[in-house]
Amino acid sequence: MNKAMIGFAGLGVMGEPICRNILQKSGADVRIFDLNPAPVARLVDLGAVSEASIADLVAAVDILFLSLPGGTQVEEVILGENGVLASARKGLTVVDMSTAPVGLTREVASALNEKGIDFADAPVARTRQAAEDGTLSIMVGGSDAIFALIRPLLAHAATDITHCGDVGCGQVVKILNNMVLFETVVALSEALILGTEAGVDPDLLFDTMSKGSADSFALRNHGMKAMLKDSFPKGAFPTNYALKDVSYALDLAKFTGFRAHGAELAQSRMEKAKAAGFGDEYFPVLTRVTDRV
């Protein structure tokens, strides 16, 4: 594996630490590309090699990791002019760590496969700190052979790596993971508001809930660390990104022919938060947007 040339495009909040962990722990040669020069410079200082374009990156590597904001960027980078499909050679493996629509993921995989390029979707879960620490959860969709190829590299960035099935299945699991998270945050916001209005100390409320059947990752992280402190910084997972991801869940609902009422409610609450000017804030900010009867 150390002989393979690794490429990484998309060095944002999650991509930069994922790339850094692979670079520093794998011993592989890593080439990188991003439109933002700051993370590129930081990784070059650690030994990565910067490429001038996606086309140049694709031409130089054997395994290409992508970590992009969403489906729009995935489509452009892979299928767009001078993108991966136009530049890649047979034998390349593309690993998309972005969260993207299931239909687009399978469309992209099919287009790449026709050119002899292997593809896996490998979206990530957990927090920015988990990305820094290399303790992400990664959900992979792809063949057994590709999973076996990329798993050792993913292990430098994650403590949990799950082969979810064929291409697109990683995205299905990630999208549903986020859907449940969003719905739980909505429920926590309602509990916080109702409990406080009814005279219960909010810290006591959430602490006691954490000792009972309402305990959850969302309660301990989004609830206790953000909602109780009324702290919703920019630069964390923002409302705009959460709206993108919940739209993917609703697309999946349409595809399967079922209503996702909870996801619809979460989308409505986040749209209200965005309309109130909180689009760039950490998405549990929806707790600031409430309705009275």
Provide structural commentary.
By secondary structure, the protein is α/β, with parallel strands linked by helices. The chain contains 13 helices and nine strands. It has helices spanning 15-26, 37-45, 54-60, 71-79, 84-87, 102-114, 128-133, 144-154, 169-197, 202-209, 217-227, 239-256, 261-278; strands spanning 5-9, 29-33, 49-50, 63-66, 93-96, 118-121, 124-125, 136-141, 158-165. Strands 3-2-1-4-5-6 form a six-stranded parallel β-sheet, with helices on both faces. Helix 8 (144-154) links the parallel strand 8 (136-141) and strand 9 (158-165). Helix 9 (169-197) crosses helix 11 (217-227). The longest helix is centred in the middle third of the chain and has 29 residues, at 169-197.
How would you summarize this macromolecular structure in one to three sentences?
The protein has helices at residues 15-26, 37-45, 54-60, 71-79, 84-87, 102-114, 128-133, 144-154, 169-197, 202-209, 217-227, 239-256, 261-278, and strands at residues 5-9, 29-33, 49-50, 63-66, 93-96, 118-121, 124-125, 136-141, 158-165. With 293 residues, it is α/β, with parallel strands linked by helices.
Percent helix, as a range, is 40-55%
Number of H- or I-type helical stretches: 13
Number of strands: 9
Strand portion: 5-15%
Through-space gap between termini: 61 Å
Q: Which radius of gyration do the C-alpha atoms yield?
A: 20 Å
Q: What strand order characterises the main sheet? A: 3-2-1-4-5-6
Structural class: alpha/beta
* Largest sheet: number of strands, sense, barrel closure: 6 strands, parallel
The residue ranges in which pLDDT falls below 50 over 5 or more consecutive positions are none
